[in-house]
Amino acid sequence: MTDPTTGPLRVAVVEDQPLFRSMLEHTLSGTTGLQVVAAVGTVTEAVRVLRPGSVDCVILDIDLPDGNGIALGVTLRRRTPTLGILLLSAHDAMDLLLDLPADVAAGWGYLSKTSSTSEEVLVSAVRAAAVGETVLDPALLERMTPRAGSAVARLTDRQYEVLRLLAAGLSNAGIGDRLGITEKSVQNHVNGMYATLGIDSDPQRNPRVSAALRLLEETGPAD
């Protein structure tokens, strides 16, 4: 995806609620290393304004007045294959990521408008999407539990904890800080988790994306 060392990440916001759009624009514009290049409220405006190569990551509301944010994301990604996409929704619709066409599936994130998402989580998700990673809403992940008989259910408690933090966008160093363990220990847990889930080291596929999507696929709301 994009190379964050070449300059600020160019971000666009597509959100039909003026107040929420303004809040997103204000937050992102005030963040070092990010530059908001467009903030619009409809699919039509987004298609017109977001020229190929003009933006590194786009934040998309799923429900827009003249169309669907996911379909818009697919269109924009096919015009700019390196584009990162972060979906926002008022509903728990993370599983929609599992239905994305294979050619555009990497580099999508999902955050809920109604969860306790912080500015830190938002900015982290934007940066992750821009480099091709998949970030899922951490508050929603906490409510999920592995499905019986799944590969995710075979993970140790620590491996599952590491997987959930990885899917929330934390680096190995960040996971180590959160859990109070060394970065090497985190990598050991990640390697064990990959082995259990059957995730290989194919350089054409981002294993962290594969792991996040597997977590999404093989978990469900806790009873």
Written account of the structure:
This protein is an alpha/beta fold. The chain folds into two domains: 131 residues, Response regulator (Rossmann fold, 3-Layer(aba) Sandwich), CATH 3.40.50.2300; 79 residues, Arc Repressor Mutant, subunit A (Orthogonal Bundle), CATH 1.10.10. The chain has nine helices and nine strands. The strands form three sheets. It has a five-stranded parallel sheet, sandwiched between helices. A two-stranded antiparallel ribbon has the order 4-5. Helix 1 links the parallel strand 1 and strand 2. The longest helix is centred in the last third of the chain and has 15 residues. The radius of gyration is 17 Å and the shape is globular. The N and C termini lie far apart (38 Å). Pfam families: GerE, Response_reg. This is DNA-binding response regulator. InterPro entries: CheY-like_superfamily, NreC/VraR/RcsB-like_REC, Sig_transdc_resp-reg_C-effctor, Sig_transdc_resp-reg_receiver, Tscrpt_reg_LuxR_C, WalR-like.
